[in-house]
Design goal:
- This protein has about 250 residues and is an alpha/beta fold.
- The chain is built from nine helices and nine strands.
- The strands form two sheets. A six-stranded parallel β-sheet has the order 3-2-1-7-8-9, with helices on both faces. It has a three-stranded antiparallel β-sheet with strand order 5-4-6, covered by helices on one side.
- Helix 5 packs across helix 9 and helix 7 packs parallel to helix 8.
- It binds 2'-O-acetyl adenosine-5-diphosphoribose.
- The site of 2'-O-acetyl adenosine-5-diphosphoribose has 24 residues, from loops.
């Protein structure tokens, strides 16, 4: 009978041998920081609104003040949250494997706060805002005014959160970089994602198709389960805390 830690020992052995580790994260990596996953974020007062309206260009055009109040609520949640063990150990791994790339679908900024550098942010970030007219990008604090719909300091156009909305293209450079890493890595760790939203969900699938071993960490089965060489059905924070203990001998 394999030990209850056999799954994590298997993953630790794979990481020790990896020459290029790709970590692909979704909202589940921030659950133990207390942040709802994307679909849970419609809870409470927001349940009356369709996320397609709150996270879409059409919704913003129809009611920019409502969309801003929703994102200000999400930003306040993200700011009040703390990175959990998963964020911290992913940042720790970055410095301890020969080559490491983090690709995230999350906009909450917790990977950067845990020390991850150069994360590829496929869906943008709540750390930034962008002008709808001139396209200039500013830190989120630029929109901290009480204005219902903050204005661009450069051209006075309307500002929006610098995140990808439903129906919008992903930042081309980020997607191109993520798919290139998927082709090059030898181990892909998919953490806390339902892998249902495209084109982001191509990343772990392309890694697998290019010959990388795919490992998923998610308490629930996902669309990746049939492709995964190893599925670790544990919460990410718990799994990474145990994984670090197993890897502590990895120099770096
Ligand atoms: P989802 O809400 O679709 O999936 C979150 C996944 O995390 C689920 O499979 C959960 O089972 C899992 N999960 C929950 N708690 C967990 C934990 N403690 N540890 C590990 N996993 C856990 O979120 P995403 O897959 O990130 O796009 O969704 C992708 C995209 O859908 C989002 O980026 C957003 C949305 O449309 C945009 O905003 C463009």
């Amino acid at each position: 009978m394999p030990s209850p830690e056999a799954d994590l020992e298997d993953l630790a052995a794979r990481i020790r041998k990896s020459r290029h580790l790709l970590v692909f994260t979704g909202a589940g990596v921030s659950r133990e920081s207390g942040l709802p996953t994307f679909r849970e974020a419609q809870s409470g007062w927001w349940a009356r609104y369709d996320p397609m309206k709150l996270a879409s260009a059409e919704g913003f055009l129809a009611d920019p003040a409502l969309v801003w109040s929703w994102y200000r609520w999400r930003k306040a949640l993200a700011r009040a949250a703390e990175p959990n063990a998963a964020h911290h150990v992913i940042a720790w791994l970055e410095k301890r494997v020969p080559r490491f790339t983090l690709v995230t679908q999350n906009v909450d900024g917790l990977h950067a706060r845990a020390g991850s550098r150069a994360a590829i942010e496929l869906h943008g970030s709540l750390e930034r805002v962008r002008c709808c007219d001139c396209g200039a990008v500013f830190p989120w604090e630029t929109a901290a005014s009480e204005e219902a719909v903050p204005r661009c300091p450069s051209c006075s156009g309307r500002l929006r959160p610098d995140v990808v909305w439903f129906g919008e293209a992903l930042p081309e450079a980020a997607l191109t970089a993520a798919l290139a890493v998927a082709e090059a890595c030898d181990l892909c760790l998919a953490v806390g994602t339902s892998a249902l939203v495209y084109p982001a969900a191509w990343v772990p699938q392309m890694a697998c198709a290019a010959g990388a071993a795919l490992v998923e960490i998610n308490p629930e089965p996902t669309a990746l389960r049939s492709l995964a060489a190893l599925s670790i059905a544990r919460p990410a924070g718990e799994a990474f805390a145990k994984l670090k203990a197993l890897l502590d001998d990895v120099s770096g």
